[in-house]
Amino acid sequence: MKIAIIGSGNVGGALAKALRRAGHSVTFGARAPDPMRQDETTIAEAVAEAAVSILAIPFAAAPDVIDAAAGFAGKVLIDATNPIGKTEFGPGLTTGFESSGAETIAVLAPAAKVFKTFNQTGFENMADATLFKTPPVMFVAGDDDAAKPLVLQLVTDAGFEAVDAGKLHAARLLEPFAMLWIEQGRFRGMGPDFAFTLQRKI
């Protein structure tokens, strides 16, 4: 499958490795493509050729990217961002339980099929989730029931246990869940080499 990743930083690069390992074709979309990179083109060109696009950018950059991609109209758009900013407690979410970053993106791109996933663990784990004995869990939220199986399969292809979290408003839970990983992994000494998993009774 052809996938456009907007953002070639830590998260975008890690997801590209995982998805290419699974046999997918990945092109990076950039405002100013590097002519020395054969896998990088403009945002508009990358999105036009792709079946699925992934936002792997700082949340604040989303409006400009959505504009450059003509609103991702008719496209499956995975929001892998987290709306993180400075709070009284340090880095934290700038939206709460009454909305979410994903819902904000859906408002900015009303003709896109927006899903929230690939935001709940560190880029180190996204690069190769198969290094865990048990696949880490990765929840998927989105309103388009027809496109959701495709997104769940991509998450599975990347090495995660894909779980349907329901409609897009469930991103109000998934973004704080991401902050729990960030708090433990980045600030509480656990480090990046851990992930959340699902366990079921025998």
Would you identify the CATH architecture? 3-Layer(aba) Sandwich
Name the strands of the widest sheet in spatial order.
3-2-1-4-5-8-9-10
Gyration radius, to the nearest Å? 16 Å
Mean pLDDT across all amino acids: 95
Helix-strand pattern: EHEEHEHEEEHEHEHEH
Instruction: Please give the CATH class.
Output: Alpha Beta
Content-based structural category: alpha/beta
Q: Outline the biggest β-sheet.
A: 8 strands, mixed
Helical proportion? 25-40%
Please mark out the parts with pLDDT under 50 across 5 or more consecutive residues, or reply none: none
Assign an overall shape.
Answer: globular
Overall structural domain count: 1
Structure overview:
By secondary structure, the protein is an alpha/beta fold. It has a single domain, classed as NAD(P)-binding Rossmann-like Domain (Rossmann fold), CATH 3.40.50.720. The protein has helices spanning 10-21, 43-49, 62-68, 101-108, 123-127, 148-157, 171-187, and strands spanning 2-6, 25-30, 40-42, 52-55, 76-79, 84-87, 90-93, 113-116, 137-142, 161-166. It has an eight-stranded mixed beta sheet with strand order 3-2-1-4-5-8-9-10, with helices on both faces. A two-stranded antiparallel ribbon has the order 6-7. The protein is globular, with a radius of gyration of 16 Å. The N and C termini lie far apart (36 Å). The mean pLDDT is 95.
